[in-house]
Structures are given as C-alpha cells and as structure tokens.
Design brief:
The protein is α/β, with parallel strands linked by helices. The protein has four helices and six strands, in the order H-E-E-H-E-E-E-H-E-H. The chain starts with a helix and ends in an 11-residue tail after the last helix.
Length: 117
C-alpha cells in the first residue's frame, strides 16, 4: 500500500470537503431589503437602528443586507456588507448605501482616535 494512504489525513478541514474552510468565513447577521420597509422615508438606517427594531440581535457581529424582497422607501442604509441585488434595490428606491467597518461601531459611529505618522 502506498505511503500516502497509510498516513493519517491532516489539514485545516472539519471533516467533509465542502466545509473545509468554514472557519475562515465571516459570520454575518443577515437582514433582507423587505425588512427595511419598517423605517420612515429618508431615514438613516444603521446597525443601532436595526438592533432597536429587533431585526438583529447583537452588534458584536457584522451585518449584511441581502436583496430579498422589494424596498418601497428611499433610505440611507449603513451596514458592513451588501449583496449586489441589495445595492440595486436600495438605489432603485432612491436610497444610498454606506459601508461601515467594525471599528466605527465600537466608537459610537465615529472613527477612532487619529494616529500620528
């Protein structure tokens, strides 16, 4: 029997090949575009507003907006990631997309202290 068949299999996977790199994935909290219709017209919707409405549970994980459903209102949406269909749906409704980072959430929506070079 060849040596490669006698040695134990080692690697970074967790068993099945389909999820070998699952521990490198970012665990997003998902919000659909149709859920954003609960907000007022021309409102700014960020992670804190989504938590206040009960659309996400925690602000410890990044938020991703997906394009399921229709948006009937013009909104300014701030999140960590957007799908391509969500960006199209928000901009077709007359809204604007803002991508934020996790650092901005930690400092209450503002950038952290400036570092001197």
């Amino acid at each position: 029997m060849p040596l490669y068949r006698r040695l134990p299999k080692r690697g970074m996977g967790r068993g099945h090949k389909a999820n070998m790199c699952s521990h490198f994935k970012v665990p997003y909290l998902v919000v659909n575009v149709k859920d954003l219709n609960a907000f007022d017209v021309d409102a700014t919707v960020g992670p804190k507003e989504l938590r206040d409405r009960g659309l996400v549970g925690s602000l410890q994980r990044p938020i991703k907006i997906l394009g399921d459903g229709q948006l009937t209102r013009s909104l300014i949406v701030r999140a960590h990631a957007f799908s391509a269909s969500a960006i199209c749906a928000i901009e077709e409704a007359g809204g604007h997309v803002d991508i934020v980072t996790m650092d901005m959430d930690i400092h209450n929506g503002e950038n952290g202290p400036e570092l001197e070079a």
